[in-house]
TrEMBL record:
Keyword hit for Transmembrane helix: yes
Keywords: Membrane, Transmembrane, Transmembrane helix
InterPro entries: Pr6Pr-like (IPR049713)
Transmembrane annotation, as ranges: 40-61, 73-92, 104-124, 136-156, 176-196
Protein name: Pr6Pr family membrane protein
Length: 203
């Protein structure tokens, strides 16, 4: 069951990411190299790629208890990342972005369907009893590294993938405040997910 779900979820993940890449290439307004760099500057793309890689590794693993994909906390961290993707889109970006056709389908996959699928997989298979709250700070390395990456990239290209971290429009101070708020949300969601896992799921 676990492997079958992982195969199905991996296929959905790769379809969404690859299709989004093709759509971005077809509608590019910059050079090919610049378009590729911009594509991989979106937290949505990086995180959905991470999700697809995770499910791919689970689906091809001969031993479903093999490491590192089944280390306690790996799935929880990925779940938190993709929840952030979904929440930011639903609460902030949906109002300013109105895709049509295939782009709309891909958007819903990346920001709604895949986050839900990951949450379901997490609820079914994560061993939350042995995941420690102290691991949350390690999980924060990924979003912090991402922030450093896009701010550094933007300082050279003047391209920022999201309006709430667009230094050229809102300034560095507001960007850092928004980033701090997102980091706080990340920490709260991480703690909440662990609390739910330990007190309700109890596995």
């Amino acid at each position: 069951m676990k492997k079958n779900l992982a195969v199905f979820f991996a296929l959905i993940g790769w379809f969404a990411v690859i299709t989004q890449f093709v759509l971005m290439l077809e509608n590019r307004v910059t050079s090919l190299p610049e378009t590729v760099v911009r594509f991989f500057s979106f937290f949505t793309i990086l995180t959905n790629t991470l999700v697809a890689i995770y499910f791919t590794l689970v689906s091809i693993a001969k031993n479903q208890d093999s490491k590192p994909i089944n280390n306690p906390g790996i799935l929880t961290a990925i779940t938190v990342y993709i929840i952030i993707v979904g929440l930011v889109y639903q609460l902030v970006l949906r109002q300013v972005w109105h895709p049509q056709g295939l782009q709309m389908i891909v958007d819903e996959l990346l920001h709604t369907i895949i986050p839900i699928l990951v949450i379901i997989f997490w609820a079914m298979y994560e061993r939350t009893k042995v995941v420690k709250y102290s691991q949350i700070m390690k999980w924060a390395i990924y979003p912090l590294t991402y922030l450093l990456y896009v701010l550094t990239l933007g300082s050279f290209s003047n391209f920022y993938p999201y309006p709430f971290i667009d230094v050229t429009t809102i300034g560095i101070a507001k960007t850092l405040i928004n980033s701090a708020v997102l980091l706080l949300v990340f920490l709260l969601i991480s703690a909440f997910l662990l609390m739910v896992g330990k007190s309700i799921i109890k596995r």
